[in-house]
Amino acid sequence: PDVVRQRDQYDGAIAEIDQDLGLLLDELRRRGELRHTLIVLVGDHGEAFGEHRAFEHGNDTYLEELHVPLVMALPDRVPAGVRVPGVVSLRDVPATIGEVLGFAGPSWPLPGHSLARLWQPGGGDAADTVLAEVELIPRGGQPFYPNRRGDVRSILAWPWQLITVAREVELYDLVADPGQHRNLAADTAHAATRDSLAAALSRWRRDAIPAKL
Length: 213
Description:
Elements: H1 3-30, E1 39-42, E2 48-49, E3 55-56, H2 63-66, E4 70-73, H3 93-100, E5 129-134, E6 152-157, E7 160-165, E8 168-173, H4 191-208
Antiparallel strand pairs: 1-4, 2-3, 5-6, 6-7, 7-8
């Protein structure tokens, strides 16, 4: 693929959304509603441009496809200028919206846990375990990388990410190697981390898939 052209098109799409979002915020401000409106800006997926021999999205579990922006703003409810370090999951966004707007509770049960604690004093850190998987889905009759190797599964517990594809295992230190170029799975110094994450991923798979009758 023409990587430069794809990047230009992607940047153009971002610029168009940015312009439309600006128009929306300007209109809310003109009506006097901006201070009373919760703004949530979030992506559902990233985009690959050949970093790991993959393009677009939905075919890999490296950070370029999993890492997305999450920005929230509401005067007097969400503090401005606060950046939460670490990893969180999109599954917690609905519960966060519910708490910020005062709707959370038994009458409005939502999956996940509110992230509002993370911007409050003494609320703890953003350490979380994020799970992701891509199943084998051929495109145009041909297996699409990396699906040609089988289903891809991932568990991310900052700063580590473990990826499994069939019998292959990959382990990355996302602080020392944010581009995910050095697979540490065979490094005996990190064997305990590898095995712990692999066990957690296996437990999640057993809990997530109902037994066949």
